[in-house]
Amino acid sequence: MPHNHLSPSVFPYTWASDWGQDQYGLWQAFTYRNVRHAFRWIPPGTFMMGSPEDEEGRYNREDLHQVTLTKGFWLGETTVTQALWQAVLQENPSHFQGSEHPVERVSWDDCQRFIGVLRNMHPELQVRLPWEAEWEYACRAGTKTPFYFGGKADLSKENVNYSGDWDKWGYEGETNPVKSYLPNPWGLYEMHGNVLEWCQDVWQGSLGKQTVTDPQGQAGGDPKRAKRMFRGGSWLYGGRLCRSSFRFRREPDFRYYNLGLRLSLGH
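Predicted structure:
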């Protein structure tokens, strides 16, 4: 059954070029300069963010705590492709070229510039980066295991683009086109591996174990220059760094060829 409970009150939005509902739930897409990009409706709910202390490969910064998201939101069905980035900014910084490959070598600052231009071109399309809690909630899609499809024993190159090792990086790899692997139960592709995905949040080394509602991160120091979050693992990383709860940070001007983005539409 599609997870269409508590559907958005306005659907589709005026910018949508096509829309519908399938086994994963509601979806809608926009088309810009002949490039189509789809979003999935993520309903509100409560989940356990972080990892239990007995999860293999966990880091201490993955505090297990209950999070409630009281409002649903839309999240990109895939990461932003090179085709969409090129259509918006007329440039392609990616190391691994391919129109349907994820854009990479983009900094958090670059993502804000991309989002700003897209908003100006499409004023009713108020895209942003997802908050860290939104990202993990959507990645898990109702699951509690290290990956939405299970644990370490279930991980393979058949379901995730990663180094092929649990702990070691693999520099001989590369990105794959989006939708190369089966989606998670909410219709989202490559939430594990392929490219890391920037989040909006300022980095917090500890999220604490208290129950929280609608967290949107906290500014530390200068919020314009503070380190920012990314999630999801990548083709370069070992499986340990592709788990649902893995979290890390870099400076907002940092770029690397395993780091991209996924768009959110808020509520």
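Summary: The CA atoms of residues 114 and 178 lie 19 Å apart.
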